[in-house]
Design brief:
Elements: E1 3-8, E2 18-25, H1 31-37, E3 42-46, E4 53-57, E5 61-66, E6 71-77, H2 86-92
Antiparallel strand pairs: 1-2, 2-6, 3-4, 4-5, 5-6
């Protein structure tokens, strides 16, 4: 799985103290990948939904997405420097 693009989210909420990036991958996110990301933080994984949802909460970030989709969103608290390029996001998500 490779990071294809990283864009600053149009839904930033800097007034609330966070910003987000939207990440697109070369392939769909699988259950196996979601479970690997569990090491990043606290995982909530709703497998039984028609479109399984996952959320990973870390100390200064929140990752959320849908299994089977090739994208996700990462939100960052104010003061946490977000990875905004493909290599930095890949490193953050431990894809490399």
């Amino acid at each position: 799985m490779n990071v294809v693009s990283v864009f600053r989210s149009a839904e930033d909420c800097q007034q609330a103290g966070w910003m987000a990036v939207d990440v697109t991958f070369s392939e769909a996110v699988t259950e196996e990948q979601i479970l690997k990301w569990q090491t990043l933080g606290d995982l909530v994984y709703l497998r039984r939904l028609k479109q399984p949802f996952y959320r990973i909460a870390g100390r200064s970030f929140l990752i959320k997405g849908l299994e089977g989709q090739s994208r996700l969103r990462i939100g960052f608290e104010a003061g946490f420097l977000p990875p905004c390029d493909k290599d930095a996001v890949a490193a953050f998500l431990r894809l490399k």
